Amino acid sequence: MTTATSSTQQHTAVHVGLVGALKLGGRRIGIELKQFFRDRQSAVFNFALPMMLMIIFGSVFGNQKLPPTQITFAQYFVAGMIASGILYTSFQNLAIAIPMERDDGTLKRLQGTPMPKLAYFIGKIGMVFVAYVAQVALLILVGKLFFKISLPGGSQWLTFAWASVLGLTGCTLLGIAFSVIPKTGKGAPAVVTPLILVLQFTSGVFFQYSQLPAWMQQFSALFPLKWLTQAMRGVFLPAQASALETTGSFELGRCALVLGAWVLGGLLLSLTLFRWNRRGES
Amino acid sequence: MADSLIVPVPDGTALAVKVRGLHKSYGDTKAVAGVDLDVIRGECLGLLGPNGAGKTTTVEILEGYRKRDAGEVEVLGHDPAHGDLDWKSRLGIVLQSTQDLTDLTVVESLSHFAAYYPNPRDVDEVVEAIGLTEKRDTRGGKLSGGQRRRLDVGLGIIGRPELLFLDEPTTGFDPEARREFWDLIARLKAENTTILLTTHYLEEAQVLADRVAIIAAGKVIACDSPDRVGGRQTGTAEVSWLEHGQTRSQHSEHPTAFIADLATRFGGEVPELAVRRPSLEDVYLSLVNDVGSPE
């Protein structure tokens, strides 16, 4: 390296303030996405899994009708898979990736640079949103091509938009908060994956929600996935399908309220719990 | 331990790092028990010491990663416990072991980190300086241990730091790679970069460091130039030669006079004559062995 620019004291300002954090946050979104898709484990379990499940479940049960309606299980299932996709790309992704980054030195290295910490979180949130949009597009394509699902109409897309944004934001914040729970990065999937499976089974993703035992319904109603799935049914199922709901309605207002509450809860939890260092390192 | 082993820096010397009475405990274990240390601007200070002596804890406090229990610390004029981003942009940190950045190529990693700094080095220049030109488009996970370490060093210097922390930078290097690394450090020094080098390789400290500080049991027990530390320059020399088919040796404070006597006795050439001054390693081992393990 040449000494053309003579040594030290050349430093101008670092990227301070919101503008600097946003600028670097944009760059972090790019680098996060590269890593998200290049890491095989992440690409399969966080991104491709809903498509794979859609194909498998759709092929086995897809043509079954849900009486008293003429709605196919594939149509019901696509709502659950999109809601699950939100959980995969945000919560599962971050609750596993962040402990790994704590172990492999990513977070320590970043702390030693003049990167504003906000840029890191912007990178994570941006990655989650981009990955989700790509995932939903592929899921709908798979559903349309293989299982002839019908697409929502105009106002339903609006519901889709707010449910996605509330769900992604809440589950991203919860994933950031949950990242303190696994002791090691390697052990993280063993903590996170069973949790997600339990929520999926009890929230009406794999089974028709209204046919689940009451205690299961009450349990899952405490968590966001049940409400996300319900809102997505409101998007992807025709109006007469509200007969399949426990209350006879998709309760979109209540969905928004609960998901919004989880956004606030997630914000509080992530702000109080998140740690850059491994336990005992300070 | 005599204070004379720690040769103080003259008053008024510009310091990059100033540490006084640094203490840090983990539970009941005292990791650092009163470290005093100066790093002069523009020098390379080698920090030596056995595992568990408090090297890494000391360095991580200087880098702002750990909080101290007591003592005064100044790094580039700031307290690292309250270091802002501006301060961080003047540091380069090469941590001990990392396994991150496996899915990004060498150039992608360097370009990305360059964006954090106000006045970064040219990415291509750094790639060349760390000897990874051929591997520039290889992902971190596919690099050998030594190549990965060089990428770490590249990321440490991409921001054109005034002060560079190197924590065991050449672990896993083959001898050739180590030589190349030493050349790189020499060039950084020529650009007036201050370097705090933690290493287990005493030869590396001998070659690179202007001064070495030896830490044992949480304290600096000796600090001087590598040639003088622990009284190396005045220590007794070992003279050895072959006599009656046997190797003989003698420790002497006046080896020249001793050899003159030997030459007279042999009436000319002394077979297999060798004079050995205590190496940095000899001095290091004797100093460190004199100190017990930390409390």
What does the secondary structure layout of this molecule look like, with pairings?
The complex is a heterodimer of chains A (282) and B (295).
Chain A: H1 17-38, H2 40-61, H3 73-104, H4 106-111, H5 117-147, H6 154-178, H7 188-202, H8 214-220, H9 224-236, H10 252-273
Chain B: E1 15-26, E2 29-40, E3 44-48, H1 55-62, E4 70-75, H2 85-88, E5 91-94, H3 106-114, H4 123-129, H5 145-157, E6 163-167, H6 175-190, E7 194-198, H7 202-208, E8 211-216, E9 219-224, E10 237-243, E11 246-252, H8 255-266, E12 274-276, H9 280-290
Parallel strand pairs in B: 3-7, 3-8, 5-6, 6-7
Antiparallel strand pairs in B: 1-2, 1-4, 8-9, 10-11, 10-12
Helix pairs in contact in B: 3-4
Walk me through this protein's architecture.
The complex is a heterodimer of chains A (282) and B (295). Helices cover 69% and strands 0% of the residues of chain A. Chain A has 10 helices and no strands. The longest helix of chain A is centred in the first third of the chain and has 32 residues, at 73-104. Chain A is elongated, with a radius of gyration of 21 Å. Chain B contains 9 helices and 12 strands. Among the domains of chain B are: 3-90 and 162-231, 3-Layer(aba) Sandwich (Rossmann fold); 237-276. The A-B interface holds A 1-3, 5, 7-16, 24, 27, 31, 34-35, 38-39, 101, 103-106, 108-109, 111-116, 277, 280-282 and B 26, 63-67, 85-86, 88-91, 93, 95, 97-104, 108, 112-113, 115-119, 121-122, 125-126, 128-129, 139, 155, 159-160, 162, 187, 190-193.
